[in-house]
């Protein structure tokens, strides 16, 4: 009996090992051609390029190329807005920048503390990395946990990626670099601190993840009220072009309007459900209306958002009962 | 080898012990730990898999510290006790509830350490356990993380504080709308709809598995009518999420007056609240 058991165990072990060995060999052979994000800078205004990511969630297939990054060649060096989701992304972004301008990198901004916006920092000179103070604190505190999570979701694309905390705090207000007059907007709502950059010289607004376009907003650290106020601030810039954090560049303000409509719907849905006394499982089961469903990943993000945001909504509804 | 035969015989006899019940002998969730669960929670007792015990939870957990779960055994008559557990959690048992005067349903949230079935077993008056469940996939880590409360002193002044609210059926409370009752068939204003009761209790619910933080959790809760008649008793364990939220459904006749919630945690701190309709 014992022997049979041992044999069975060793067979299991072999069965487990064999495919793994094959996978390793295949991966090594194919390594050269793989892990190319195919980053293509798209010129959207004078001296201004955007690298548009896919409207997807992290997978081992897209390797985390789901985010928009951008850069401005100011005449006195390049200002880079976000560095992407891995060391490889950062390196390939740097190469993409070099393919369109000879200027050196002057400043790199991390718009907020989510990993797809700063995990490419390793490829850039550390002393050129800037972020809002709360973003610096957030990356220092949670960066490693985020990176670990992306190793799980994006797989080998992440190899060698380590967190580099931006050392330079950025203050809101005017910022002149070379021939460009920027305005640094210190906002919040998508996370505690969201940096938007308005280029007065070209009329381009780099809206960070405060704006999503044709891709549903993500909310793991969101405060919807603050986010909606931040959208008012962004709209007030009167920008001609809006670069969202995810999704295509918007030329008609439609991206801000769509983000506002989505967040407004989400807030109403959750508050209404809490006022009706629904259990979280019942809120997860609510149908997503067709007008919202046509936005990429809307149903998946709605269900994630319920888990993120319903506890606060139900707490407000329960507290109101105490005041009656 | 002898043991092996003994186990086989035992299995055969439990199959024989439930003739006439259309229960599949195999675990519908195909969990490697089902046999352990059966021996641990129902030794020598009759167990059937039963679709009338519904466990609703997301297929993939967004937050392993807060996985929403709703157990509804109200389609099964005569439920005396419901026990909820997760096959692969380091602390298996999540909670038990006794739906004395309430419907046999309860909503709550749990912490999960890894992907696992979440099961509810409802015991009926004849002693038979009716088991339902669902798999939840999670990145995990929910049980060995410290509570957010343990990192800040703020909760101490509010420990055990209850916020609660009652939702009466539409006919009795024209200004409020009753909760959605999927599958219950009740229509607003017909008086057969349950009253919804939701509670939130401020408590860190530390599992004792995070380094240096002892287990500290709400253990007993009683939901009663103002007159003292018990509606539901809940025995909670460590895996229930921080600042527990419970969703109960009560028969309308039971909830005309205020509801009293009382209980204690494993350190003996008392919980007392009164919820007016």
Could you explain the architecture of this structure?
The complex is a heterodimer of chains A (about 325) and B (about 280). Chain A is α/β, with parallel strands linked by helices and about 325 residues long. Chain A has two domains: about 40-250, Metallo-beta-lactamase, Chain A (4-Layer Sandwich); about 265-324, no CATH class. Chain A has eight helices and twelve strands. In chain A, helix 3 links the parallel strand 6 and strand 7 (about 170). Chain A is globular. Chain B has a nine-stranded mixed sheet with strand order 1-8-7-4-5-12-11-14-15, with no helix packed on it. Chain B has a three-stranded antiparallel sheet with strand order 2-3-6, with no helix packed on it. Chain B has a three-stranded antiparallel sheet with strand order 9-10-13, with no helix packed on it. Chain B folds into two domains: about 25-135, SoxY domain (Immunoglobulin-like); about 150-275, Immunoglobulins (Immunoglobulin-like, Sandwich). The longest helix of chain B has 15 residues, at about 1-15. With about 280 residues, chain B is mostly beta strands. Chain B has helices at about 1-15, 35-40, and strands at about 45-50, 55, 65-70, 80-85, 95-100, 105-110, 115-125, 130-135, 160-165, 195-200, 220-225, 230-235, 245-250, 260-265, 270-275. The interface of A and B includes residues 1, 152, 277 and 285 of A.
């Amino acid at each position: 009996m014992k022997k049979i058991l041992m044999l069975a165990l060793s067979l299991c072990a072999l069965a487990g090992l064999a495919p793994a060995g094959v996978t390793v060999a295949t991966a090594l052979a194919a390594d050269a051609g793989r892990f190319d994000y195919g980053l293509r800078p798209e010129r959207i205004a004078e001296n201004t390029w955007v690298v548009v990511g896919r409207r997807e969630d992290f997978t081992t297939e897209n390797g985390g190329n789901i985010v928009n990054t951008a850069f401005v060649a100011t005449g006195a060096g390049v200002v880079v807005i976000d560095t992407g989701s891995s060391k490889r992304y950062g390196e390939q972004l740097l190469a993409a920048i070099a393919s369109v301008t000879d200027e050196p990198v002057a400043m790199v901004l991390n718009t907020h503390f989510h990993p797809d916006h700063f995990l490419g920092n390793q490829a850039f000179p550390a002393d050129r990395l800037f972020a809002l103070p709360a973003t610096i604190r957030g990356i220092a505190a949670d960066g490693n946990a985020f990176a670990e999570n992306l190793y799980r979701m994006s797989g080998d694309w992440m190899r060698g990626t380590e967190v580099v905390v931006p050392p330079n705090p950025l203050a809101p207000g005017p910022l002149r670099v070379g021939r460009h007059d920027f305005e640094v907007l210190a906002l919040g709502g998508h996370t505690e601190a969201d940096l938007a950059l308005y280029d007065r010289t070209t009329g381009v607004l780099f809206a960070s993840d405060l704006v999503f376009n044709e891709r549903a907003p993500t909310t793991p650290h969101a405060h919807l009220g603050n986010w909606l106020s931040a959208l008012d601030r962004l709209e007030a810039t009167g920008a001609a072009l809006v670069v969202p954090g995810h999704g295509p560049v918007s030329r008609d303000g439609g991206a801000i309007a769509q983000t506002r409509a989505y967040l407004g719907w989400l807030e109403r849905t959750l508050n209404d459900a809490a006022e009706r006394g629904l259990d979280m499982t019942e809120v997860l089961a609510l149908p997503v209306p067709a007008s919202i469903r046509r936005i990429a990943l809307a149903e998946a993000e709605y269900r994630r958002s319920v888990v993120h945001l319903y506890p606060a909504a139900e707490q407000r509804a329960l507290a109101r009962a105490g005041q009656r | 080898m002898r043991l092996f035969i003994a186990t086989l015989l035992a299995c055969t006899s439990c199959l024989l012990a439930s003739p006439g019940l259309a229960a599949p002998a195999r675990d519908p969730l195909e969990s490697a730990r089902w046999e352990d669960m059966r021996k641990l929670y129902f030794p020598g007792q009759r167990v059937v898999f039963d679709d009338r015990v519904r466990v609703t939870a997301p297929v993939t957990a967004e937050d392993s510290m807060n996985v929403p779960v709703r157990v509804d055994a109200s389609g099964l008559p005569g439920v005396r006790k419901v026990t909820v557990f997760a096959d692969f959690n380091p602390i298996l048992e999540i909670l038990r509830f006794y739906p004395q005067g309430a419907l046999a349903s309860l909503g709550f949230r749990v912490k999960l350490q890894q992907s696992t079935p979440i099961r509810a077993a409802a015991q009926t008056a004849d002693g038979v356990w009716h088991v339902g469940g669902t798999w939840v996939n999670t990145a995990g880590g929910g049980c060995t993380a410290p509570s957010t409360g343990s990192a800040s002193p703020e909760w101490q002044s509010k420990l055990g504080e209850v916020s609660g609210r009652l939702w009466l059926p539409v006919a009795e409370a024209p200004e409020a709308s009753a909760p959605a009752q999927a599958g219950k068939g009740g229509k607003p204003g017909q008086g057969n709809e349950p009253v919804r009761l939701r509670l939130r209790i401020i408590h860190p619910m530390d599992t004792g598995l995070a380094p240096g933080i002892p287990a500290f959790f709400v253990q007993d809760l009683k939901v009663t009518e103002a007159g003292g008649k018990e509606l539901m008793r809940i025995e909670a364990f460590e895996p229930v999420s921080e600042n527990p939220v419970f969703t109960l459904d009560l028969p309308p006749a039971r909830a005309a007056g205020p509801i009293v919630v009382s209980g204690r945690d494993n350190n003996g701190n008392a919980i007392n609240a009164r919820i007016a309709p």
